[in-house]
Amino acid sequence: MKIAVAKGDGIGPEIMQAVLSIFEANKVPLEYEYVDMGKWVFDKGFSNGMTPEAQETIEKLGILFKGPMETPKGKGVKSVNVTARKTWNTYANKRVFQTLHGVDTVFSKAGIHIDVTIVRENIEDTYGGIEHMLTHDVALSRRFITRPGSMQVIKYAFEMARKKNAKRITCGHKSNIMKITDGLFLECFYEVAKEYPELKADDVIVDDLCMKLVTRPDLFDVVVLTNLQGDIVSDLCAGLVGGLGFAPSANIGDHICIFEAVHGTAPDIMGKNIANPTALLLSGLTMLRHLGLMESAATIENALLYTLEQGIHTGDFGDKAIPALNTTEFANAIISNFGKLPAQGGKPTWPNKPITPTTFKLEKNPLIMSKEMEEEVIVGVDMFIESFEQPTAVADKCLKHTLDLFKLVTISNRGTQVWPKGSIFTNLVNQYRCRFESIGDAPLTQIDIIELYKRLSVDFKICSTEILNMWGGKKAYSLAQGQ
Ligand code: NAI
After folding, report:
1. What is the distance in A from the centroid of ligand 1 to the CA of 13?
2. CA–CA gap between residue 73 and residue 190 (Å, rounded)
3. How many percent of the chain have pLDDT more than 90?
4. Number of the ligand 1 atom closest to the C-alpha atom of 268
């Protein structure tokens, strides 16, 4: 079986070398095709951070084992990590955080065992990176949460929880504030939950979830979240089990899967051969199990757990009284412990039954669609305009242009209503949202909205527009704070 390997930037080549040396010593039945991806590929002029040959190889083989890759901060190039996840629709990011004997944490010292799996939606949310400056003072990021995208990742999380014999699955969200986007994610969660009656499905607001995870992590089993919240919560969980050096990650899609560590390129320690390869090794073990190589995975994992139990460590963790090993020495220590079982209990060693990844070529992307079942009526429009004037002056200008079709119902600034009622204490920026609704709920057309747009543009720069729809008599938009 052949897989694609990208060594990555920074410490990537060092930890990849360590992990592949362990695989080789264990005679893991895999062949590797190395592909060109990362910062150095950007620098050569490939704007998505990978060569066309790399893309072709990964799409042919279906499995990518990758080291961390650098994303230059701020403006300019996009993250190759995010591009890879999005391009190949690896919609579920599974991150397993477990207590490891030999890796001391406040919880291990208190005898509290942690085994939490975070499933993070991997494609949508603000990670589309669709951002605009609306005025010189106001930046806007678009956050997409879709029903098909949410269903895909939530179904994966439930299926994985069932296979893992989990007792509880929790949805982390912020639907008390983001009622439409996180509300949709939560709705999908409970829709899928109906098909898994054996699992206790519940939800926790994400800030409360963070507090509960750091006080009683042992109460959680599988947690599913949207992309950004999942990213933050999974780093928090990495901290619970000893840091980023122990946090593996699998990006699961229907056709292509990417296995990598949660951590980045660690530029501060690159080139010194002192990085901890455990997170990449744990990611590699998830990959071996994904490929049906159960025996190889169990032997290596038992050797890793035994090694950690012996107090053997790299410089980033462990007992400072015991000298730290470098990356190569640490890998060799694991190799020398093949066949040993950890006192905490060894992993069962089922025989290898290789599974060939599904790598058929997609001729056409299947578009998952929910049919619009309900009656859809346009009832208004939000016009986002630039203005340096006070709300009443903005309202006066808007009211000149309402035609016979629209009424001006509210003006808000940063989401807070400032007209017809508001507070002098609400701080203003130079961008307002003016909400126009149809008179007497009469249905509007897009042409009516274009006419309003033309009229308003005489007085204002219009930065953005959103149509207000009613679906089956329900508002498909949120109210302004104070409306
Ligand atoms: P980082 O994870 O690279 O480093 C954070 C801290 O953890 C540093 O002090 C580092 O030395 C330490 N650390 C990380 N991995 C370690 C290991 N295996 N052994 C010992 N210590 C380790 O995060 P940072 O500095 O924010 O990001 C550096 C670069 O990595 C950025 O360009 C970022 O975009 C990229 N990155 C890439 C990821 C990926 O490829 N999936 C994920 C996260 C960041």
Report:
1. 14
2. 38
3. 76
4. 11
Query: Considering the chain, what is the average pLDDT of its residues?
Result: 92
Q: Which residue has the higher pLDDT, 237 or 352?
A: 237
> What letter would DSSP give residue 444?
B
Give the per-residue pLDDT at 323. 94
pLDDT tens, 137-165? 999 999 999 999 999 999 999 999 999 99
CA-proximal residue: ligand 1, atom 40 (nearest): 68
Q: Look at residue 76 in the predicted model and tell me its pLDDT.
A: 63
Q: Residue 336 to residues 19, 26, 34, 305, 329: CA-CA distances in angstroms? A: 14, 10, 27, 13, 10
Tell how far the Cα of 393 is from the centroid of ligand 1, in angstroms.
50
Most informative mutation of 263, 283, 325 for ligand 1 (most atoms within 8 A of CB): 263
Pocket of ligand 1 (CB under 6 A): 11, 15, 68-71, 81, 244-245, 260, 263-269, 275-276, 279, 316
Pair of tokens at residue 408 = 């001006």
> Which residue, by CA, sits nearest to atom 43 of ligand 1?
264
pLDDT digits (tens, 9 = 90+) for 298-312: 999 999 999 999 999
Average pLDDT over residues 235-260: 93
Question: Which of 371, 365, 359, 379 lies closest to 448, judged by CA?
Answer: 379
Residue 476's Cβ-side half-sphere holds a number of Cα atoms within 13 Å equal to: 17
Q: 441 burial class (0-12, 13-18, 19+ CB within 10 angstroms)?
A: exposed
pLDDT tens digits for range 389-416:
999 999 999 999 988 889 999 999 999 9
Mutate to test the pocket of ligand 1, among 43, 66, 73, 265 (most ligand atoms within 8 A of CB): 265
Residue 347 has pLDDT above 80, yes or no: no
Nearest atom (ligand 1) to Cα of 249: 41
Report how far ligand 1's centroid is from the alpha carbon of 74 (Å): 17
For atom 16 of ligand 1, the residue with the nearest CA is 245
Angle at 400 between CA 398 and CA 406, to 5 degrees: 70
- Between the two ends of the chain, the Cα-to-Cα distance in Å is 60
Place of tokens 């990213």: 231
| Domains of the chain and any CATH numbers | 1-91+254-370 (3.40.718.10), 92-252 (3.40.718.10), 376-475 (3.30.70.1570)
Q: What is the pLDDT of residues 363-388, one digit of tens each?
A: 666 666 676 677 889 999 999 999 99
Strand order across the 416-419 sheet: 416-419, 406-413, 431-438, 376-386, 461-471, 474-475
Give, using CA atoms, the residue closest to atom 31 of ligand 1.
70
Atom 13 of ligand 1 has which residue's CA nearest to it?
A: 266
